[in-house]
Amino acid sequence: MNEQPLLIAQISDLHIKRPGELVCGRIDSAAALQRCVVELNRFVPRPDLVVISGDLVDRPSPQAYEHLARLLVPLEIAFAAIPGNHDDRDLMRAALPDPHYAQAHGALNSVRSLGDLDIILLDSVVPGAAHGTLDAGTLAWLDTTLGASSSRPALLFLHHPPFVTGIWHMDVDNLRNAGDLAAILRQHERARLIAAGHVHRATMTMFAGIPATICPAPNHAVALDLNESLPPSFKIEPPAFHLHAWFPGDGFGNVVTHWVPIGDFDGPHPFFGSDGRYL
Ligand SMILES: [Fe+2]
User: Fold this and answer.
1) pTM (2 decimals)?
2) Which of 12, 23, 189, 255 could pair with 197 as two cysteines, CB 3.0-4.6 Å apart?
3) What are 229-247's pLDDT values in tens digits?
4) How close is the Cα of 54 to the center of ligand 1, in Å?
């Protein structure tokens, strides 16, 4: 059997509200997260880490973060989180204390080592704004953190995508200083994946010469409007998360991202009968 990959599950844009409230008056984001936690707990093999890539709450308040923390109690896997534009750093830091945070105040950057892999979480939040920026301190921290090794592969997570998706009302609020990020990534070969959130859709492209993805959400999707035919809109599409599988191997190994739907579906059924023949 081949060597087992390291598995990093990414969930994103949870948009938890105070108990009893619905997102946009319509979406029960708490129930959606509960279904997501069930899916993560029953996934075999168990992921090594869950990364939550921002917009943990919908409107920041102590009550919303307490609700979020309670909903995460049943999660049986260690998790790490970064904020999104719907979050408040101080409230999040209080609700989800984490010894991995690189700074005592401000940006919630962190790094974790999982076996031969480094997981780097970047805080792209601009307080009070919807768009993202990596501030000077975060850029310097990233450069130093990536510079700490030349051989360990690293996966990078941040909320705001550093690329356009074609969905105009999201693209105006993506990462504004993507060029600064690209310049650092080009200095450090070991960065092997950029994994973002914010757009509530499964998306893939290349950025600064490496694969870049956006994680779908467990609740609502941003409507896939590529010609500005709609006002900013959401749609209830199949809920899902991303599972990033890192396989060791030559060089920095290889990362494969799986889209994992959340819910109960028919199957699995065997392809082959007891006689070994394809059914
Ligand atoms: Fe967002």
Assistant:
1) 0.97
2) 12
3) 999 999 999 999 999 999 9
4) 7
